[in-house]
Amino acid sequence: MSAECGIIAVCAQESMDVSERLHSLIDSCPQCGSLVLFFKADAVSEEEISRAAALVENQGGREVMLVPFHGQFSSKDLISSAQSLVSAGYAHAVLADLAAGYTARDINTICQQADEHPSCLVTAARNHLQMDEKVRSSNKRVCRILQIVCHVKVHDALTGLVCLPLAHVAQATNGLSDNDDAFAYLLTQSAYLFDEAAIVEASVETIADEQNSAQVSDAFKETRSLFTIYKTVLGRFPKYLASSLSSTAIDYLIFGILYYLVIGVAFYSAIGARVVSSIINYLLNKKLVFKGIGKKYRAWNYFLLAAGILAVNSALLALFVDTLGLPAIPVKIVVDVLLYFVNFTVQNNIAHRN
Fold this sequence. Notes:
Helix content is 57%, strand content 11%. The chain is an alpha/beta fold. It has 2 domains: 5-234, Spore Coat Polysaccharide Biosynthesis Protein SpsA, Chain A (Alpha-Beta Complex), CATH 3.90.550.10; 237-351, no CATH class. It has a 7-stranded mixed beta sheet, with helices on both faces. The protein starts with a strand and ends with a helix.
C-alpha cells in the first residue's frame, strides 16, 4: 500500500498495551502516512495515549491526530476521520481495532487486496472453525441478519480490520449516528458507498486476542452491529411510507374509477390500478427512498416483485370479492396491509444487491 494510504486506529480498552499494538500496526504499513488515533476518553489513560503518539511521531515523522470519543467508535467518527484524511491527500485508509490483535501479516494481506481492488471495501475474514464457539455463533447470527436485511454476504461480520477507499466514504451522509458501530455501518452502507463488487474479503490468520476475545467479539458487539443493521433499514422507512401512501392513494383512486364507473370487475380493476401505481412507486423509491444506490435499484427487479405482489393481490380480491361477494374496498385494504411489509423487506433487499 502506498503513501496515499492513511491509518485510522481505534483504542477503547485501557488494559491492553496501546503502544505495542500501534507499533505492530505501523510496522506493517511502512509506506502509510498520517495516523488518526481514536481513543475512548473514559477508558484509556492519557499517559498511554501520549506514549503511543510519541512512538508514531518518532517513526517516519508521521503526522498524528489524537481524537477522543465517548461511547463507541461510531459512523460519525469514521466519516469525520475519512474527511480529515481526504483533506490531507489520502485515497485509502486502514481502519483497525487495536483490541482485536491483528498481526502485521493480516494488515499486509488486506492492503494487497486493496491494491488489486482499489474501489472496494476490503475486510479481514477470520477462520470460523478456529473461533471460540460463542464468538462463532454471534458472528453467524450477524452475518445471517446482514444478508437477509441488506443482501450483504460476508463470512466475518464482526471484523475489526478493513481497508477502505476514502473518496466515497468521506461524502457519506446517509444514516450517520453517534450510537452505531462504524464497522457494521460500512457493511450496511456498502451498496451506497462502493462499486458493484462492493466488498472483498481477505482471509487472515488471526482469530482473536485471547486476552480480549471476550470483550471484542461478545454479545455486546453483536448487539451494536445488529442495532446498526436495523437502524439502516428503519431509517428509510418514513420515506418508504410516504412513497407507499402516495402510490396507494393513486392505486385506490384508479381502482375505484375502474370498478365502479368503467369495468365493474375487481380482478381487472386491480390490475389496471396496480400497473399505474407501481410505475409511480418505483420512480419515488428510486429518487427518494433508495437515493444514492442509483443503477443498483433496477427496474426489472422491482417490476418482477410488483408482478408477484399483483398476482397475489388480484387472486385474493377475485376470491373474496368476485366469488364470495365481500365488499371490495375493505377487502382490498386488508389484503394490501398483509402484503405491505413483505414488499418493503424484499425491496430493501433488492436495493442492496451488489
